[in-house]
Amino acid sequence: MSPDVRSDLDAIPAYVPGASVPGAVKLASNETTAGPLPSVAAAIADAAAAANRYPDITSRALVERLADFLDVGAENVTAGCGSVALCQQLVQAVCAPGDEVIFGWRSFEAYPIISRIAHAVPVSIPNRADGSLDLDAIAGAVTDRTRLIFVCTPNNPTGPAVPRAELRAFLDRVPERVTVALDEAYVEYVRGDDDDKVDGVAEVMARRNVVSLRTFSKAYGLAGLRVGYLVGPVDLVVPVAKMVVPFSVSSLAQSAAIACLEAGDELRARTDAVVVERSRVRDALLDMGHAVPDTQANFVWLPLAEAASDFDAHCRDHRVVTRCFAGDGVRVTIGDRDENDRFLAAAREFVSRM
Ligand code: PMP
Fold this sequence. Notes:
Blueprint (H helix, E strand, L loop, with lengths): L24 E2 L11 H12 L10 H11 L6 E4 L2 H12 L5 E6 L4 H8 L3 E6 L8 H6 L5 E7 L11 H10 L5 E5 L16 H7 L3 E6 L12 E4 L2 H9 L8 H12 L1 H24 L11 E4 L5 H10 L2 E2 L1 E3 L3 E5 L3 H17 L1
Parallel strand pairs: 1-10, 3-4, 3-5, 5-6, 6-7
Antiparallel strand pairs: 2-8, 7-8, 9-12, 11-12
Helix pairs in contact: 1-9, 2-9, 3-4, 3-8, 10-12
Bound molecules: 4'-deoxy-4'-aminopyridoxal-5'-phosphate.
């Protein structure tokens, strides 16, 4: 007889990561193409030399550096093993079994998984036709059992960011007992009118029920090291920090993240280059007839519906790995110019076949 395990395991979807194919260009996981900056690599090497010791359990130096950087109190920040771990800690901190977690769909794949793991009920609200979150419908779906709402801005995988006025009107509607998590994994890529842009940290400081989740995996290029952070009111930061698996932010990750914060200008140049390429790739895809939504992140979304799997397989035949959401669309990370050209050549050939 095998041991008893949870009876609801089949209801927990698997997280499907972007594939890596040797020799192919990987545009499947919204990573950066370039490796860590030399100063960051040096900090990682220094930390590796002391890897016989456990890391600082509270990531104190990193938290204090982040607090300075964001102009908030250190008590408003906690670090985690990637922002996905902080998403999970947040669900565990606010939800009892049967409580509801609302999010737009399609959005970050982990939301339904971590909700189910915590015995909470995921409630997904369809996005608008242009790939943006339907915040009206999300606010309208709040019930007595709702504990948490994830607002992913810019939204993975569709790309649009929520405009500031729209977010504020939404936050005004959501009862204060419900926590709103602004998942800002791609915030460093947002451009445009300052009055329109959401700064999650400013929203956090103006409210009692809002947190911002950010990561070093994307613009900072540390996906392999696993480090992210949450900014929020103390009444949420303390419960979230309590849910952490002890020592889950490695000493290498803590040191690398601090070094990244010291290298702001160099990293800004990298995100600027992605933004330029993002416009070029999106314009080329629009010319090919793809209805690519506006994107403020380091990826584009092709709403290919039933053709998504064929397109993804075609790109893979051309040694370009994209991320397929079968029956819905394909998400393609913005890489460097050569990588993007390889992808665009494959996309052009796909169109010419249709
Ligand atoms: N939020 C969003 C919207 C994401 O796309 C991702 C990564 N794909 C994460 C959070 C988690 O990132 P990480 O755990 O690497 O910090």
